[in-house]
Each structure stands twice: as C-alpha cells, then as structure tokens.
Amino acid sequence: MGRGDLTNDEWVQLAPHLPKTGRRGGRWTDHRTVINGILFRVRTGVPWRDLPERFGSWKTVYERHRRWAADGTWERILQAVQAEADSQGRIDWSMVSVDSTSCRAHQHAAGAPRRTPRIPKRRSTPRQHRPDEGLGRSRGGLTSKIHLAGEGGRRPLAMLITPGQWGDSPQLIPVLERIRVKRPGGGHPRTRPDHLGGDKAYSSRRNRRYLRRRQIKHTIPEPKDQRANRRRRGSRGGRPAGFDKEMYKRRNEVERTINRLKHSRAVATRYDKRAYVFHGTVTVASIRLWLRP
To answer: Model pTM?
Structure first.
C-alpha cells in the first residue's frame, strides 16, 4: 500500500457503495487500484498521463473518474457514506455553516470545447455540466468558486461550483437544497440542520425569509448598511435580526473544512477543463474526508 492509498478500514466502508464489476462488455480493472490512482491525482495534482505505473493505464483511471463524475456516481457514493455516518451518530447537525472559497484555475483548465458534452453510450448531459464551465475571469486570471455547507465535524455536506466572480449570498439557497442525507430506516432524507451559521455576506432579506420559512435557526451578522437602512425605514424596516455571539464562534468549523479540502492540490488549483469533472474531483476529496475517522 502506497502513501495516500485507501486503508483496509476505509476500503471496507467504501466497497459496498461502488458499482458492480463484470458487466457486459468485459471486466473492469479492480476498483481499489483505480480509486487509489484517482486519489493520488487529487492529492498531488499531477497530470493524468504522469500517474505512476502501479495504478495501471492512466487512461483507465481518468475515464472512470470522468464517467463517474458525469453520471453522478461520485455524488451517490458521497450520499451513501454520509448516510452511514449519520446512522452511527457521526454527523454534528447542531451547527452547519456555509462559506465559499476561490480556486485559481490553471491555464490548462481553459479551452474546453463549446459543444455540450455527453455521457458515453447515453444521450444525456452530465449532471453537473455548466455552459460557463464554472470559470470566471478577473484581474487575477481564471478562477472558480466552491460554495460549501459543512457540518460541525469539519466535513462537507453539500457543495456547488460557480465562476469565481459570483457572489456568495445568491448561492445560499442552492447549496442548502443540496443537503440530502438518507435515513437508514427509509423515508424522507434529512435536509435541515438544527442551526445554520454564515458570515455577513449571506445576510439578505431573501435568505432570512427562506430560513424562517423552513424553520431553520440561523446566526448571520447584519452589515452596517443593512442596519442603517432598517432603522431609516422605521417600523416598516422590520425587527432587528437575532445574533448569538457564542454560536457564531463555531463558524470557523466550515473554514477548517475548506482548509482540509484544499490539502488536495487538485482542489486548491483547478486543472480540469470541464466543470462536472472538477465537481467530481471535489466530491472525491470530500468522500476521503468522510472515510477518515
């Protein structure tokens, strides 16, 4: 077992959720070998062609990662691992925080063909495909942004990829609606945290109305300009937003989650041309965090 490969305990957790091998068309290369190759690339950020020979053909490793990113296999595995962790009481729902982080895009991440990609042997578009490929341009160059909801144990619950110049506040609702942790006994998956935390970038009347409608307690500071505008309007401005200083101290948990994700160099710097492939890369890094004790 090489450095960074799946341990036996991690493999025991992961194996039941993988697609079955031996389908019509020939046997797949051993899942564990290929996944170790994917993890090596996510951790180091090397070009796919430079994968060590011990992982087999680089094209086999890349194609499996691309296919599983396109058809949603990586997302289903993440949800299955989260459901297993929740059944064991290892998800801290008491405080879920939202935040975002910008990832500098390598020059190789630009130049994707403009035609819409297709899933191999299917007439459908990849699940996380974006026409803009999640790339934004600014004075600093090309960037992508990862919007993240993380639980108290410093592991990601849901994520969204957008161009780097997109704001944080409009993405709060889309990120929260991606939280779906299945229950072991069946029924509706859990989608609501006990408490939500965020910085003042997420303070808006739209977001607060959404959280109140879903009965989600939240701690989001109100910026000075919003406070002044509310006071200026008098009784029409509404009541002041509640703020719990002690709960807000836990917002660092999502920042530490992002820090752990960015230990993977292929997440800290985007090398993938397609947005759905980069989403798969971030999902693989998230799965690894959930597999670790």
So the answer is: 0.93
